[in-house]
Amino acid sequence: MRGGVLLSVAALFAGSGAGTAPQGYFDLQPGVTLETGDTWIDEGKRYRLYGVQSCLRGTTYTDRSGEKRDCGEASLAMLAAYIRDTNPVCAPVAKSAGAIFVACYATIGGERLDLANILIASGFAFAALDAGGMPFHAPYAVVEQKARESRAGLWQFDDVQHPSILLSRAANERVRKGGQ
Is residue 69 within 8 Å of 156, Cβ to Cβ? Predict the structure, then answer.
């Protein structure tokens, strides 16, 4: 069913011209409070890109000059740049207790493109995985693999790790210590 949610949202993309947002969409404009490279707050509501996991803030990668850089800040900066440069529109696709999950598209050269796909293809975000290690939206995993193979974005740095690996390690450590 998870993939079906995005497929139904994708169907909305096809039927409308590049100048107007389909009914039910809202503008994602500069000025929102970005929390991470996949999550923001606007008018007191937390939004998160469906099927995307950005780098975790506070995790690092080593750049070409040997300096440690914050991976989460790199993901956040790219999301900010895409918001500023592509005027995305978003539609809610699911809700959780903590966030409204959205599908967004950006307009580039008169074409509508999936913002999550752009972030993952550029190597500054990753396909989000469920607790079983499966992608929430399988096409994003394919895009991520292509980005990894071409060493796009953060994948060019040898010590970048998929955030799901880091989250899994943290969860396992909590369980090992008897916490939850």
Answer: no
pTM, to two decimals: 0.80
Total structural domains in the chain?
Answer: 1
Beta partners for residue 60, in sequence order: 70
Assigned token pair, 162: 């998929």
Q: 100 near 27, Cβ under 8 Å?
A: no
b/e sequence 101-110, b meaning 16+ C-beta within 10 Å: bbbbbbeeee
Using the 8-state DSSP alphabet, how is residue 28 labeled? -
Q: Which domain holds residue 151?
A: 2-176
End-to-end CA distance of the chain: 28
- Alpha carbons 86 and 113: distance in angstroms, whole number: 10
Q: CA-to-CA distance for 12 and 112, rounded, in angstroms? A: 11
Residues of the chain under the 50 pLDDT cut: 1-18, 169-172
What CATH number did the domain enclosing 95 receive? 2.40.50.90
Q: Which helix (H) or strand (E) holds 126?
A: strand 126-127
